[in-house]
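Please fill in the sequence for the structure shown.

STRUCTURE ENCODING:
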């Protein structure tokens, strides 16, 4: 019998008021996902898809309109401030911008000591030992604690932000676009560091990003989000190698192609895709941009259902789920296609995007 998930989100809906004369803006619309102990779930979608809103709702920074969020078996959907303070020892976050997430007027040692002083009340010597140990884990030099954020590069600051998030040994870390503000080679180093820390500390991650190839290397499972709705989800290698939903295809097609002719062909195909105006919430959220949309797509919202690939389809929590009326046509339930073995473990990524051995000290 499998253990219960560390994070379980059910039918989460988040709305923002736009004034008295306008209806509320539904940023997250009935999203469900779960994360097991030691697992990384990647939450992927373009800007405005509701990714960060889901992370903020889990952290209690954004009010929940409907649905339920359970963390370690406890309902935290509308937890009170005192409960949230206690939760912070087990639930932490790494934000996108390494330049604004650290207080420039405080030394790194003071910043890292704060959670220890609040939750564990250690003396000065024990606090210094904990800080030195965590800085070493993230690959920072010993004198880091006595210096200020302005003396470090963006990649080093993000390592420090990771160290701060791990000071109390949380079980779940929400990574909200943690590498999008970094150079490509630095992105690879930070991703490898996160993978190494996960193995050492048995961490779980909710990894939020807009770049599907980046998320693929760290995630065990991926959830694809568009306009606040889940379009597709499943094991990372399978979803990346064999996407089903047209929006997942579009995300992969948006990845830059080294071959200029192939990139030009992709751009032409995207330009030729039809657009039928603003989406209607009655139908599929992606129907107005989908080249394969039919009348049913515009009238009825598709349910998020298991993708049947064979008569003995997988029914585990890691199965493929797709919200598309035409999924059976796009991915017929036969065994005639050649199935290549896929590694279900996340891999490290090198500076050029290729797989590489993990190392926190690169």
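FILLED IN BY: designer on duty
SEQUENCE:
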């Amino acid at each position: 019998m499998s253990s219960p998930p560390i994070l379980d989100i059910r039918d989460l809906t988040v709305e923002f008021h736009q004034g008295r004369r306008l209806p509320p803006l539904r940023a997250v619309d009935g999203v469900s996902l779960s994360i097991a102990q030691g697992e990384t779930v990647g939450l992927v979608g373009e800007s405005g898809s509701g990714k960060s809103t889901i992370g903020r709702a889990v952290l209690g920074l954004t009010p929940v309109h409907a649905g339920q969020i359970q963390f370690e078996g406890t309902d935290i959907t509308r937890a009170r401030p005192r409960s949230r303070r206690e939760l912070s020892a087990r639930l932490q976050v790494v934000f996108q911008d390494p330049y604004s997430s650290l207080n420039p007027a405080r030394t790194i040692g003071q910043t890292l000591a704060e959670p220890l002083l609040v939750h564990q009340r250690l003396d000065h010597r024990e606090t210094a030992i904990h800080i030195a140990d965590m800085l070493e884990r993230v690959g920072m030099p010993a004198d880091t604690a006595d210096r200020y954020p302005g003396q470090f590069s963006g990649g080093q600051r993000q390592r420090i932000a990771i160290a701060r998030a791990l000071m109390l040994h949380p079980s779940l870390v929400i990574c909200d676009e943690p590498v999008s503000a970094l150079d490509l080679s630095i992105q690879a180093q930070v991703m490898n560091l996160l993978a190494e820390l996960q193995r050492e500390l048995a961490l779980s991650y909710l990894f939020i990003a807009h770049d599907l190839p980046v998320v693929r290397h760290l995630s065990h499972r991926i959830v694809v989000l568009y306009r606040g709705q889940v379009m597709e989800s499943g094991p990372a290698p399978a979803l990346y190698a064999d996407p089903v939903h047209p929006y997942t295809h579009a995300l992969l097609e948006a990845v830059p192609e080294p071959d200029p002719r192939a990139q030009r062909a992709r751009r032409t195909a995207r330009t030729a895709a039809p657009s039928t105006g603003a989406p209607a919430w009655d139908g599929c959220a992606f129907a107005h941009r989908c080249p394969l949309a039919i009348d049913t797509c515009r009238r009825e919202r598709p349910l998020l259902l298991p993708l049947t690939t064979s008569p003995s389809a997988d029914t585990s929590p890691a199965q493929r789920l797709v919200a598309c009326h035409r999924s059976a046509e796009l991915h017929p339930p036969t065994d005639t296609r050649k199935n290549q073995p896929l590694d279900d473990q996340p891999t490290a990524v090198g500076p050029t995007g290729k797989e590489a051995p993990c190392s926190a000290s690169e």
